[in-house]
Design brief:
- The complex is a heterodimer of chains A (92) and B (147).
- With 92 residues, chain A is of the alpha+beta class.
- Chain A has a single domain, classed as Beta-grasp domain (Ubiquitin-like (UB roll), Roll), CATH 3.10.20.
- Chain A contains two helices and eight strands, in the order E-E-H-H-E-E-E-E-E-E.
- A five-stranded mixed β-sheet of chain A has the order 2-1-7-5-6, covered by helices on one side. Chain A has a two-stranded antiparallel sheet with strand order 3-4.
- In chain A, strand 3 and strand 4 form a beta hairpin.
- Chain B is an alpha/beta fold and 147 residues long.
- Chain B has a single domain, classed as Cytidine Deaminase, domain 2, CATH 3.40.140.
- Helix content of chain B is 22%, strand content 37%.
- Chain B contains three helices and eight strands.
- A seven-stranded mixed β-sheet of chain B has the order 1-8-7-6-5-2-3.
- Chain B is globular.
- Classes of the chains: A alpha+beta (92), B alpha/beta (147).
- The interface between A and B is medium-sized, with 19 and 35 residues.
- Chain A: It comes from Planotetraspora mira.
Chain lengths: 92, 147
């Protein structure tokens, strides 16, 4: 068993168009590392030196990981991780 | 992209009822920015289901979808085979043109980014494609009903 990662349209060029892919790891950081091994280039779109990029939201099941433990959030087989582009902007 | 419904690329076709709903939301939240989505069937390019979103920033110069609300709305769209045909937000003191921040966040190449300005007596309602940082304004065709 593995963890299902749901990929938004904008990042499916890294997954050969797949809407969802499997990955493994004990924490979100490990999961993203495994994703990178399977789908090179994806990691850079999700994280930078400071942690999760502000342009993406990452959810463990239905909770935003920013309200959990960020990249250190534990993940387990059977969980679903969802990536969505953040929708934001402003007058400036 | 143009689905079977869209007249041709470079145009947003949208019902008057939806335009009125978007403008009413922008006016109600003025002077804060208002934001939301109009969902439609995948591949149709037809905006149908109006979804008013919270501006988590509650700010006159910035907007951000609340991440939990966005998760629920995106999951609903997934379940219904819908996509965000329109993503709208308002500018309350400046014209209805995408800002640098708007452009940096825009990530849906098939979405019509609608900007409403409530800065003037008459509201501005304009639509754009934003792909790889390039902004292209498109015509807005307002119809009484979809054919």
């Amino acid at each position: 068993m593995a963890i299902e990662v749901r990929i938004p349209t904008i990042l499916r060029n890294y997954t050969d168009g797949a809407k969802a892919v499997d990955a493994k790891g004990a924490t979100l950081a490990e999961l993203i590392g495994d994703l990178e091994a399977r789908h090179p280039g994806l990691k850079e779109r999700l994280v930078d030196d400071a942690g999760l990029r502000r342009f993406v939201n990452v959810y463990l099941n239905d909770e935003d990981v920013r309200f959990l433990g960020g990249l250190g959030t534990p993940v387990a087989d059977g969980d679903t991780v969802t990536v969505l582009p953040a929708v934001a902007g402003g007058a400036r | 992209m143009s689905g079977p419904f869209g007249s041709f690329p470079g145009m947003l076709t949208i019902s008057r009822e939806l335009v009125d709903a978007i403008v009413a939301h922008a006016r109600a939240d003025h002077p804060d920015e208002a934001c939301g989505v109009v969902a439609g069937p995948e591949g149709s390019d037809r905006p149908e289901r109006f979804i008013q979103m919270d501006n988590a920033e509650r700010s006159p110069t910035f907007y951000r979808f609340d991440s939990h609300e966005q998760f629920r709305v995106w999951r609903d769209m997934d379940d219904r085979d819908e996509v965000p045909v329109v993503i709208y937000h308002s500018h309350t003191a400046t014209e209805a043109y995408p800002s640098r921040t708007d452009i940096s966040y825009a990530s849906e190449p098939d979405t019509h980014y609608v900007l409403v300005s409530t800065a003037y007596d008459e509201p501005q309602f304009r639509s754009y494609r934003i792909v790889d940082g390039v902004v292209t304004e498109e015509d807005v065709k307002i119809v009484e009903a979809y054919g």
